[in-house]
Every structure is written in structure tokens, then in C-alpha cells.
Amino acid sequence: MSTLSTRSSLFPCLFVPCLLGALILYPGGSALAQNPPPPDHPAVTVRGQTYTPRSILARNMGSEADRVTQFTPHKIIGNIYYVGTVTLSSFLITTPEGHILIDSTYERSVPAIAKSVADLGFKFSDVKILLGNHAHGDHQEGDALVKQMTGAQVMAMAEDVPLLQAMKPGGKEHPVDKVLHDGDKVTLGGTTLVAHLTAGHTPGCTTWTTTAQEGGRSYNVMFGCSLRPPATLTPAHVDTFTRSFKTVRALPCDVQLGDHGAQYNMQEKFAKLKDGGANPFIDPASCTLEADVQEAMFRALLAEQQKAARP
Questions:
Q1: Domains and CATH numbers, the chain
Q2: DSSP letter assigned to residue 170
Q3: pLDDT for 153-175, tens place per residue?
């Protein structure tokens, strides 16, 4: 049985443009994380790597094939497994009482996720709880289908509920069985995840934390939510992102994950698993890398915007 705080009141969407952005479709019906593509400036360099807004978006999303093609499912640490596609993350957390899935991704990618769960030797029908990082189609469009296939309870941060309710692939109503708030805990089969509101990319962007056991030790695991800022920053954005960067940097972390594999160098770390050495996903030094990249971009965008506004 899951346990969590379930306050019933809903917070309104903080940023109306988020709702519009979530509904705009690219050619071919692919609801991407941002439309139109952001301007390709400014450029920032973090730890020797240069990034632009478009390079970050391309890194995260890849091609249509990348978004729907199964990536080799694998154990990350303890009871946490990767079951997503080449560029869109989905995580399976197994317990004796059923499983938790984080991020359904696109509806058309759900079959790949279900196959990955089966390939690991687990039953997709044993998923009891479905969580998400944020209410964009590439992360939570498949919620209704996953619920249809598994009967899982869908839980979402209050501030993202309006965006989710507007997300209706094929006319399906978007299920929300439990409304969460900052600091709420979700527990199943001895595993507890904590929801941290790290708003900005969406009003209810949620970073999840938990612990995992490996080799007789306990490790702090963080499932990061995107901190990618919009092309134009409002005063509300500035305040919200500033709080979220501070929140993420204060979270305990030994294993940093993200809603796109590229946010934590998933493919490079997966390749190292074959070496049979230390677990490459245990990498405290990289826990703030994505925050460093996105905060540098945020500061550069803000400076560019302020300069353009001067007479």
C-alpha cells in the first residue's frame, strides 16, 4: 500500500505559457519540449563543454527514432533500473509489493518501456504507482495508457495538474489519482521517494530523491527534473529558477539521474558497466553538473535580456 500526504487543494498554473507550449505540436504530431526551437544564443562553457540553447535541446531529444527506440534496459543501483528509450528516461523501482515507474514518456513509447520491464524479468502489470518529473508530452503523455495497462495509481505535483489535464492523447482523459505537494513522500514495499518542487521548466517540475542499497552501503539517488529555462525570462521565472537551483544543489546525492539520459551521461556510464569495475552511476562529482549547465545558461540569458532592454 502506498502512503503519502494527500492535500486536496490544487495550486493554479504559475505560467500560462507553459500550458500553451505543452500543447503545440511539431510536424508529425510530436509534442516536443519547446516550440519553436530556441534562438541559438547565448553560448556557455561548463567544465570544458560548450552549450547553446539548441544544442541542449538536441542533446536531450535526439531524433524521432531516438525518442521511441528502446535503449538496453539496465540496473542502475539497488532496486532502480533504466527502462526508457535512447533519449527519454523512464525508471523502474522494484519492491516486494509491486513497482514504481517514473515517467511514461510519449504514449507511442510505452510499448518500448513495457518491453524493457519484461526484458529485465519483471511484470509490467506489477507497476502500482506511476510518477512523473514534469508535465510535458515527452515525459508524461503516456500516463493514461500505462494506467490502462497496469491499473497503477498516477500521482502528480499539484502545480502541474492543469497541464496534465490538458494532455489528452487520442482524446484520453489524463488520470491523476493522487495530488502531491512539495515534500510529500510516496512509499511502496519499503522504498520511499520524496517529491521536491523544483519549478521553472514547468510549474510543478518535480525532482525525486530516494536511497538505494549496494555493497552493504546506502546511496542517495536524485531523479532530476529539467532546469532548462525558456528563451524569455519573466520576473516570475527569475524568482522560481533561482529557488529551484538552490533547492537542487542542497539535495543529498551520490547518483544523479535525469528525465533525459544525456543529463547524466547515461550512455557513457552504461558503456562502463561492461568493464566490471566500480558502479559508474555512483558519481557524486557529477551531481550538480546539469544544474551548473542550466544555471549558466539561465544567467547568460538573463544578462542578454537585460542588456537588450537598456536604452
A1: 16-309 (3.60.15.10)
A2: G
A3: 999 999 999 999 999 999 999 99
